[in-house]
Amino acid sequence: MAIHATTIFAIQHKGQSAMSGDGQVTLGNQVVMKHTAKKVRRLFGGQVVAGFAGSVADAFTLFEKFEAKLEMYNGNLQRAAVELAKEWRGDKMLRQLEAMLLVMNKDTLLLVSGTGEVIEPDDGILAIGSGGNYALAAGRALKKFSGDALSAEQIAHAALETAADICVFTNHNIILEAIDHDERNNA
């Protein structure tokens, strides 16, 4: 039986990038195994934020590989994501991994999948996982109708709260990481 972790939301809005994820890990479709998993993390000296949805062990493998690619390409997010997607799709063993990644820095937001996809959204919003569509819909509505009233962090948090209210595989233990676009290297 597979252990899964779900619902990551990311947004670029008003000079800020923010990513949120819930803490629930489920075993199959019936048992909650953990409530406080950290599925959103800072990488590359805090300059990159990454989040995963899918099988936990698979996601950790991808985090390690993505972080190695970031180091290899000196923090170039697009290049690291493309190289990870190529390796993921081309390697027989990696192709079996059941997870997806959202990765962002101050300039770029990308979805990376095992089918070789590296997708940059048109509207600066992405979401993955079982509650991803709920979070995506909430986030798009909040961004569209809040104008400048809400920050990227506020939208990311509210979108995850909405998903947690609807999706049984998403909880309210929300981890949120943000990058201001004028933020300098923290390393």
TrEMBL record:
EC number per UniProt: 3.4.25.2
Record flagged with keyword Iron-sulfur: no
GO MF: metal ion binding; threonine-type endopeptidase activity
Catalytic activity of the protein: ATP-dependent cleavage of peptide bonds with broad specificity
Binding positions for Na(+) per the UniProt entry: A164, C167, T170
Top EC class for this record: hydrolase
Domain of life of the native organism: Bacteria
CDD domains in alphabetical order: protease_HslV (cd01913)
Cellular component terms (Gene Ontology): HslUV protease complex; proteasome core complex
Pfam families, per the entry: Proteasome
UniProt keyword list: Allosteric enzyme, Cytoplasm, Hydrolase, Metal-binding, Protease, Sodium, Threonine protease
GO biological process, one term: proteolysis involved in protein catabolic process
Major site of localization recorded for this protein: cytoplasm
Activity control summary: Allosterically activated by HslU binding.
Active-site positions on this chain: T6
InterPro entries on file: ATP-dep_Prtase_HsIV_su, Ntn_hydrolases_N, Proteasome_sua/b, Proteasome_suB-type
Compartment list: Cytoplasm
Family assignment from sequence similarity: Belongs to the peptidase T1B family. HslV subfamily.
The protein's role, per its UniProt record: Protease subunit of a proteasome-like degradation complex believed to be a general protein degrading machinery.
Known partners and oligomeric status: A double ring-shaped homohexamer of HslV is capped on each side by a ring-shaped HslU homohexamer. The assembly of the HslU/HslV complex is dependent on binding of ATP.
The protein's name: ATP-dependent protease subunit HslV
Organism: Chryseomicrobium excrementi
Gene that encodes the chain: hslV
